[in-house]
Structures are given as C-alpha cells and as structure tokens.
C-alpha cells in the first residue's frame, strides 16, 4: 500500500535531482486526488515542500483550500511576505517577482519560491542555463514568456539574494531554476 508519505518521499527525490541539475526535466507522475485546475506536478511539489510553518500565496481559491488542508501551510493574503507563490502563468504579475521576499545578506534563505504552472516544459522558447550543477551549458525549452525570465534575472543579479522558480506543466513535467543559475534567451 502506497501512502502519501511514500508519494512525497518519491517526489522529494525527484525535486532534489531537478534542483541539483538546473534545466533537467523531471516527470512527477504520482497518483494524487487533485481538485484544482493546476497540474498534479504543481500540487505534489507543494505537498512535498510545504508544512505548517510555511506561508504561501495563491489567487486560486481551490488551490489555496487544497494546500491548506493537505499540508497545514498558512495561506497568506499578501504575496510580499509569502514563502511560496503558487500560480498559473496566465495569472503572473510583475509584482510576484519585484515585490516578494528576496532574502537579506545575513539570511539569503528568507526568500520566495515561485511555483508556476506553465503550458509546457520542453516546448517553446529556448533558454540557455549556466551555473552550479551544469557542466558547461544546459538548454531547455519553456512556454514561459521571456519577460518573466528577464524579471527573474534582474531579481537574482545580486547573489545570494533572489528567488527560485519551479515550473510545472499539464504533462507533470517539472524543471527548477535556482537563483544561482544564469538564464539567457537563445
């Protein structure tokens, strides 16, 4: 019998693999009852990373309710102080990049992570990634508009400050772009 603990342990391993190899696509296809219109990968990622000490912001009422019930995480009405922002690409706003926690020099870990459910991971605009975990260069195609990557790059230019991105799609593909990774449009 496979429990939610077993499921989140498997997803955690996949997230560690994806974060240690930026641009690497993981398919998170575990069974989960998903009542939101977000991908299973987005829900499973949040279920794995959230606990009762995490605050998150999501405009989607169903996702907010589901994450609160499944994880005990605290829904935040203000995106500027949330640990995580869970959103669809269509609902992205510049403020989700410019007005979120970016850490401070003595505590760079106090920054936001954006979980963005995009149309596709593996198709669309080609991006080049360089940095820790990448031997020379990794290329990944994303449907994510380059405007959002430019905003993300501006926020992350003063390392160790910045934000991390976790991108998921309807096919349950997941790619992680840590703040340490340099991203360019190809």
TrEMBL record:
Pfam family membership, one: PhnH
Cited InterPro entries: PhnH-like_sp, Phosphonate_metab_PhnH
GO process annotations (BP): organic phosphonate metabolic process
Domain of life: Bacteria
Protein name: Alpha-D-ribose 1-methylphosphonate 5-triphosphate synthase subunit PhnH
Organism this protein belongs to: Jeotgalicoccus saudimassiliensis
Gene name per UniProt: phnH
